[in-house]
């Protein structure tokens, strides 16, 4: 699914002619900590509420921030997973989306991205999660899949993450079974290090539970 399919028309933009006070009111109304500053279709960056509160003159217009903002964004052809990664790594409440010719298209809230990932990353499927730890040269998805298949377990989704502190690969597997003792024993028999095991993962409607689950799942 392209990012433009997730754009939310309810996320407003700030204009260079708006005042500091205007921007603070808009942020308060939307309950978002940052909003995009856009001049016609040119994206200037995300303007934080804290930056506005620190500004001395509330009557100044937002054009004073030209060239001074963080320009976090994703290009429209990218997969939504890239937008999720950007939001998590930079703690963004929204992710602005630009066209390939750098025109502002709109924005997606972090909440909407998490719901998308929950619906499309097999998180709503009953089952469990296993996290394996290994050296880079030891990784073979084919062998991991064969071990799972030998125990009649299907890999619904997988993620590979390099832990910057240890340099080790962490392979997160979402599986279709809730009882994982047998497949854990099989991994250990093949001398894999099983770092973490999560049991039954039913569908969650509560955003806080989804967020906690996503942090474990995508391991960013």
Summarize the structure.
The protein is α+β, with helices and mostly antiparallel strands and 220 residues long.
Would you mind describing this structure in some detail?
It is a single chain. The chain is an alpha+beta fold and 220 residues long. The model is unreliable at 200-208 (pLDDT under 50). It has two domains: 3-118, CBS-domain; 125-218, Alpha-Beta Plaits (2-Layer Sandwich). The longest helix is centred in the last third of the chain and has 12 residues, at 207-218. It contains seven helices and nine strands. Strand 1 (34-39) and strand 2 form a beta hairpin. The chain is 31% helix and 25% strand.
Structure characteristics:
220 residues; alpha+beta; CBS-domain; Alpha-Beta Plaits; 2 domains; 3-stranded mixed sheet; 25% strand
Q: CATH class of the largest domain, anyone?
A: Alpha Beta
Q: How large is the count of helical segments?
A: 7
Roughly what fraction of the amino acids lie in strands?
Answer: 15-25%
Give the structural class.
Answer: alpha+beta
Q: Topology of this structure?
A:
Elements: H1 20-30, E1 34-39, E2 42-48, H2 49-53, E3 74-75, H3 80-90, E4 94-98, E5 104-109, H4 110-120, E6 128-134, H5 141-150, E7 155-162, E8 169-175, H6 181-189, E9 193-198, H7 207-218
Parallel strand pairs: 3-4
Antiparallel strand pairs: 1-2, 4-5, 6-8, 6-9, 7-8
